[in-house]
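> tool_call: predict_assembly(chains=two)
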Amino acid sequence: MVDILHRVGINASPRDVYNALTTLDGLSSWWTNDTQGRPEIGGVIKFRFGDRGFFDMKVLELEPEKRVMWEVVDGPKEWIGTKVIWNLSPEGAGTTIRFKQQGWREPVDFMHHCSTKWASFLFSLKAQLENGKGTPYPNDFLISIDFD
Amino acid sequence: MVDILHRVGINASPRDVYNALTTLDGLSSWWTNDTQGRPEIGGVIKFRFGDRGFFDMKVLELEPEKRVMWEVVDGPKEWIGTKVIWNLSPEGAGTTIRFKQQGWREPVDFMHHCSTKWASFLFSLKAQLENGKGTPYPNDFLISIDFD
């Protein structure tokens, strides 16, 4: 099993970061503007990217201002069963996010792509929280970082 | 042992991408403007980031337009002995880069940080090759993506 790891510092409070990860409005502001479902424990959040694909995430953990965990219950076959884990910690007036997508079965080519894409969406999250300039799908500049 | 993986598509030829990875001018245009040393097989390339740190990479493999491998011979202790591997493949008129930093002993906190930083420098490489807008140190927008 292999994991995608990232870390980013954001000049926003843990409360604001947590809200961006746990509300439909927040998630829509940096990942995809087509985000629906129930972002509470046991609920499923449906992230849609037009004809580029989708992910359904079941919410497993919600610890305000500290931790969020989702399990991928539908989407690309390589993603199903992986867990997406967000750990937040205060750093001065800001927040450090430690991100992990845990449990890839193999380091397949698609995992390389997803690692880079996650980074770009973390930059979108950061831009959204720091200056309101998130680039969620379909405005993600990332459409252009790969050929698919 | 764990690896950092990335994949990015660049609208530039494999020849141009290879040159950006194997010449001092090329490397200076997207990673750090303080790049010195001997970028040939067996040579050591010295990447300097002011008081933020440095990496010394020994060139192990050079396969024109296809593959570059370096071994980290000095720098942060977690990096020493890891290998940085660039695989290039043509994709239409462009190039897909598959990147790996192989052989981290443990998925430490610093590895999370480096995974995200590598993504940002890959975006710098892409910007440099596509429109001459690379952001090598000290102009890396990444100074701001983390707190250190």
